[in-house]
Each structure stands twice: as C-alpha cells, then as structure tokens.
C-alpha cells in the first residue's frame, strides 16, 4: 500500500497529504498504532465513445427484458401506496 501516517499527522498536515494524493501517493492512516483506513487518489474518469462501448459489449449475451423486469421487481419494493 502506501506510506503509513498517524491520525495526528493527517490532521496537522492535511494540506501536505492532499498534495501528495494529487501526485498519486497513497496512505494508511493509523490510530494508536492500529491501521484504521486507507487514503488513495481517485482515478480520473475516462470518456468512452459509443462506438468503443458497442465493441466492448458486442459479445455480451442478449438481455431478456421481461426476465430483467421480474428480477428487479423481486428485489425492489414497487408498492405505490402511501406509507403514512
């Protein structure tokens, strides 16, 4: 993973930590010597053209819309009656 820093170091040097994240560095944050979290840079979003998406998913199995709807209905509460 990345460099280990304490909770106090994160609090007192948050600007330095943020600049390091901008440079691509990662951190493991500890509290009382125990790792409690990881700070990692967010990957920049990448635009994918419609043509590239069609090529990427071209070999995917066709979607059965009725089965998909049944699966969604089984998972979600679709009752439109007021709850209160």
List keywords for this structure.
YefM-like fold, three-stranded mixed beta sheet, flat, 4 helices
Describe the 3D structure.
With 84 residues, this protein is of the alpha+beta class. It has a domain at 3-39: YefM-like fold, CATH 3.40.1620. The chain contains 4 helices and 3 strands. Strands 1-2-3 form a 3-stranded mixed β-sheet.
SSE layout:
Elements: E1 3-6, H1 7-12, H2 14-22, E2 27-31, E3 34-39, H3 50-56, H4 65-75
Parallel strand pairs: 1-2
Antiparallel strand pairs: 2-3
**Rg from alpha-carbon coordinates:** 23 Å
Share of helix, binned:
25-40%
Low-confidence stretches: none
Helix-strand string: EHHEEHH
Structural class: alpha+beta
Oligomer: single chain
Question: Helical region count?
Answer: 4
Task: Describe the structure in brief.
The chain has helices spanning 7-12, 14-22, 50-56, 65-75; strands at 3-6, 27-31, 34-39. The protein is α+β, with helices and mostly antiparallel strands and 84 residues long. β2 and β3 form a beta hairpin.
